[in-house]
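lol forgot to send this yesterday, sorry. struct tokens for the thing we talked abt
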């Protein structure tokens, strides 16, 4: 994936700063929103990747879309624009999420089922994961309708 090494460095620095300012969870929510929004919007992905669109305009677009984010997250937009790296924002967000989960000892578990998991079943799976690994897990349910 393009920009992964740089994204890892940015994400690590962001997490350290967020931890220092005690806003790591808020920034996590921002990064989750950013990641999902970019993933679901071809227009936004194209805009961020476009060499024709001025970085300052990209920054304005991001600030308009994500107007309720933490000030640190807004600073990330500014930094990436300043360093001409705004095109890797989605990778930075995903790396941050991964580092955040690792830092609080939460792992990710992908559960593939034919039908969506009920809350009851999620609780049982969560308990089994904790029993086996000693760590909490975020559960992602993938539906595989045969």
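and heres what i got for the seq, position by position
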């Amino acid at each position: 994936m393009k920009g992964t090494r740089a994204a890892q460095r940015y994400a690590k620095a962001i997490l350290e700063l967020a931890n220092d300012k005690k806003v790591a969870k808020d920034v996590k929510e921002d990064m989750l929103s950013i990641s999902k929004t970019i993933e679901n919007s071809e227009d936004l992905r194209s805009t961020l990747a476009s060499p024709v669109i001025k970085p300052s305009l990209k920054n304005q677009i991001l600030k308009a879309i994500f107007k309720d984010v933490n000030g640190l997250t807004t600073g990330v937009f500014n930094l990436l624009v300043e360093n001409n790296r705004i095109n890797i924002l989605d990778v930075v967000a995903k790396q941050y999420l991964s580092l955040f989960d690792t830092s609080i000892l939460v792992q990710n578990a992908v559960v593939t089922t034919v039908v969506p998991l009920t809350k009851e079943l999620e609780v049982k799976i969560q308990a089994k994961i904790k029993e086996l690994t000693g760590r909490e897990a975020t559960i992602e349910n993938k539906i595989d309708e045969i």
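Helices lie at 4-20, 24-40, 42-49, 55-65, 71-82, 89-103, 119-133. anyway ping me if u want another try
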